[in-house]
Amino acid sequence: MDYVSTRGSIQPANFRSVVLSGLASDGGLYVPNSLPHFDSEDIANWSWLPFDELALRVISPFVGGEIESAVLKSMLKDCYQRFDHRAVAPLQQIGPNEWVLQLHHGPTQASKDFAAQLQSRLVAHFLTLPDRAIVIGATNGDTGLAAVEAFKDVANVEVVALYPRDGVPADRLAGLKASSSGHVRLIEVDGSFDDCQTLVSRVLRAWPLDDVIPISFNSTNWVGVLAQIVFFFHSALQLGGGIRPVGFSIPGASFAEIYACFIAQKMGLAINQVIVSTNTNDALHRFINQNSYSTREVSHSLSPSMDFSLFSNLERFIWELYDRDGRTVQHLMANFEDSGKLSIGNKQWLQARMLFDSYAVADDQVREELLTIFKEAGTAVDPQTATGALAARLHRRSIASPMVTLAQLAPSKSSQLLAELGVWNGDVAATPTLSVDHVVLSEGDIDGLTHFLQGV
User: Fold this and answer.
1) Which residues span the domain enclosing 409?
2) Which residues are CB-contacts of 303 (< 8 A; sequence separation ≥ 6)?
3) Using an 8 Å Cβ cutoff, are 372 and 423 in contact?
4) Could you give the number of structural domains in the chain?
5) Is residue 425 assigned to a domain?
6) In terms of CB atoms within 10 Å, which of 176, 249, 264, 287 comes out highest?
7) Residues 387-408: pLDDT tens digits?
8) pTM, entire model
């Protein structure tokens, strides 16, 4: 399979080139030139498959002939060995035809483990020694921890993680700092998560190291989307054999999951509703409902993994809305990078409105939903999952179709809040003492980041 850039200015690339990349050379994101399509009978025949076998069916067409089938099969089986549930991603019922898909059984208890575990194995397969790579990205905790864990034993690869000074939960920040070493470099940015993402994008577009391969651990790398397409096939097969339509509510912790759901639907999966749920940082909600997307100062919420307003994968979706017209996307994104604001054509916006519903959830609503789920379903969920579950309950179009909320974080990561609400009976994580052995950059300091990378 060939891959092209959303900005349309490069020759097609193969899967290996896409894996070993940050951004396309024209600054766009890699996307498959075509999508595989399965009919309902094909999908129904996968109902009995374990998660790794299902992943093989979904992922193989995107790999093409770049990896032998037996090698890819072994790689995918190995990916999920460290997940602590036999189903890998079990479904839990929380109400009448309402479910949560537990994506937090990986080694760092976050859905980011799925992409990170797959990406590290693909990089290890394709990276030819003595080539070196730096796996770089922005994190507000979970994505960085997943990357550090996944790449810790990959030869000739170093991890560089940028994180905002104020906005990373203390337990995640302690985990990152505990991993800091010659193999893992941390950079604190005196700004927001959006500022971290912007710095990473800028340095990837003007990479300063000729002898080192830059690889993004954020979902700007296509693997970050690819690994998550499997979620939706897995859920639909469990609840309706791939034939019965299923709806999904996706907390907007990135646009990668949302775009992956869109791709799964285009591949033939019976999905009859997609709800995008946000917290008070509602950039995606405003885009879907008002055709107004902009970066703005973020506020802190009960779900800090959703506290940002810059969603890189939105570019891939816009490329689809404009019938894969790279020139138009390049113009739109150039204007957005200059102004911080973006609106799309009315035709394209109406199409987006037909594909997605959305809802913004305030913190007081999240607290109430956490209590409701515990009282009515007897289970604790994290605030991010509660955000999605409430949006699903308020905006589902059909009670006859299963509605699945993606549970991207383990409730133990919010044990202090849940204990305060009386919905947590386990151990409560103590607030860790943090050291300060890391590099600090000011907002927008691309020269400082470049200088740091030259010393890695």
Assistant:
1) 90-109+225-420
2) 251, 253, 279, 366, 382, 383, 384, 387
3) no
4) 1
5) no
6) 249
7) 999 999 999 999 999 999 999 9
8) 0.95
